[in-house]
Design goal:
alpha+beta; 12 strands; elongated
């Protein structure tokens, strides 16, 4: 065995020690993180035996998600305090990631439960129910008709904070019809809104008041059917000696996420009410 073979690893041998490709070693070399101790004129690369231990640090820190910049700085200035600080910071990052994962898992379970409930819903059933206070973020829609492209632009602007967030929002977007427009033969959609569970994470959060609500679950819940559903609810309100006290909230419980056919959409409409003698 030559002196070089006894004192160095070829790039293939060195890559094999860690179960990685030669391209990975070229990548670290290109980014000035880890270079072979010897590069001959013919381009052959050789790693010293001691470099095994340095690269063990690099590959382990990379596995932990430490950035290349941080790895490069640490490898050049290794000491116990720097290592403690580096690992402590990663532990803190993991705590944040675990909290994010837990939030997303919790929201996924809520969505799964919502889907199960939708499958068990009885359509065209009007109920009178007490509802707890809820929080939502809303954006006003233009009073005048606009193009489909403009509508999508406005919906996208409303959804952007949720799309940009790493946290999955568990509630679908809905619509608001103002109280004064409920009896309109063609009631305009005044706002789009999305319910939120953590109001402190958003700006301009509004409150859906706690109270008594008339609810309708209907399969005739596509946009063109809102007027028909609202008229049915207003007739129920009148028959039961109730009066409307606020805006109507429209939620598509089944929408484009779970069907490609709009005729299969299922909508829940809620109107806040009170007894007239109260």
């Amino acid at each position: 065995m030559s002196d070089k073979a006894a004192s160095y690893f070829t790039i293939g041998e060195f890559a094999q020690l860690f179960g990685i490709s030669k391209q990975t070693l070229f990548y670290y070399e290109k980014n000035n993180i880890f270079s072979p101790e010897l590069i001959e004129a013919n381009g052959y690369r050789y790693y010293s035996l001691e470099q095994y231990f340095i690269f063990e640090i690099i590959i382990t820190l990379r596995k932990l998600g430490v950035s290349l910049k941080e790895i490069g700085e640490y490898v050049k200035n290794r000491n116990i305090d720097s290592l403690e600080n580096l690992l402590s910071y990663k532990a803190l990052e993991y705590d944040i990631q675990l909290e994010l994962l837990q939030r997303n898992k919790s929201n996924l379970l809520i969505k799964i439960e919502q889907l199960k409930q939708v499958k068990a819903l009885h359509n065209n059933c009007i109920t009178l129910e007490p509802c707890a206070e809820e929080y939502f973020v809303a954006d006003t829609l233009p009073a005048k008709p606009c193009s489909t492209k403009e509508q999508i632009n406005r919906i996208a602007a409303h959804n952007l904070p949720f799309a940009a967030s790493e946290i999955l929002n568990e509630y679908p977007m809905g619509y608001i019809v103002l109280q004064q427009d409920l009896s309109n033969p063609h009631p305009p959609i005044s706002c789009i809104f999305t319910r939120v569970s953590h109001p402190d994470e958003y700006t301009q959060v509004q409150v859906k008041p706690q109270g008594l609500y008339v609810k309708l679950i209907t399969a005739d819940g596509y946009h063109s059917q809102y007027a028909k559903a609202l008229q049915k609810m207003l007739a129920f309100i009148q028959r039961n000696d109730l009066e409307v006290t606020g805006d109507a909230y429209i939620n598509q419980l089944r929408n484009y996420w779970s069907t490609s056919d709009p005729s299969e959409y299922i909508t829940q409409i809620e109107i806040p009410v009170a007894y007239k003698n109260n």
